[in-house]
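Tutorial handout. Part one gives the primary structure; part two gives the three-dimensional structure as tokens.
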Amino acid sequence: MHVFVVEVPRTNYVSGHMTLPGLSKIRVGKECVPYYTAEDDRTRIPVPGVSIGDLSVESIRWAIAEHRRKFDVHEGRWVDPQEFLAQGRLVKRYLVDGEVLPHYDIPLSTLILFGKQAALSAHVPFLETIVITDGGEIRLHKNVVDCVQALCASQASRIPSQCPTIARSCIQELLINAYIHRCYRTPAPIEVRITASALEISNPGELLGGLHPDNLIHCVPVYRNLSLADGARFIGLCDKIGRGIDTVYESALSGGFDIPVFESGNNLFTGRVRLQRSIEFREFVRKRAQSLSNLDEILVLRFLWSRHEASLMEISWVLQRSHAATRRILEGQMKKYQVERCDHDLSFHLTASVRRDIETISQSDQMDMNLWGE
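Part two.
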């Protein structure tokens, strides 16, 4: 008996095979559907005059530790920072005729991730993060890795310490999203605003073609800076394609917060999480998590919890789905006795048992057996 085995190693990169227009596809059933698209990527271009010495070894070593933690890599791997960068396709190694030691091309994405302050000032002087609070503002002229460490790497970092009720995963996703998707042709900073009512993170560059704040949950991702996204994912700063926005929604809703708000216009993109929250809804999601099958259900329940009733059109807008798809979702929730039609049959509201369960969830661990049906 002869056996032929082909092993295809799993990668941590975004990019793969793309068509000339920048369209990548993935097999779903019997057809290939768009996985993501990518525009002309400025961050993949090597920066003239920049060398390995212009990158922070401390930043790279922190990235190595994050990669090990995220992907459960053996401690003995990635001892050499240059080898780590080469393996992650963060630098391009080449030899010059007659020389033994390798040279490296440093793309803009790698400089943005790991660059020393002098190199950043010379080549990306507008790479600045401004954090604005009631107590004043701070300005960080640092690479992305150093900014992440300072702003959200732990619960004691600046943003989580100012917004302790928001999950750190939600904060980090919003911040990384701003760095990855910002326009690096626009000389403007990233701004983080923390007020008594909201956390707001803005970056230069509107959403790209085909994207709109009302279709972000179910859209085909479009990358302005695919090389930078590759690098951030290899480090472990962000998750797989298309999961970033879902993480923000899921983290916010499971924390009892209102539905996150996204805005795009005037060459600016903003993500906002309101700090006012419902402790009852947070406890409800935590204790009923096994009965809540997906993000759609939680979105419907949170939307109807905050108001007496809502029309099919309003719920469709919140779910970012068609009326037909929304109707199917609501029909499923009606079968589970989560929602019901109003008397006039034009709108929907929570069933009395679900509303009562949310209201009293903190007082009792006993589940109403009639709540979800059989």
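Part three, for discussion. The domain at 1-277 is CATH 3.30.565.60 (Heat Shock Protein 90). The longest strand covers residues 31-38.
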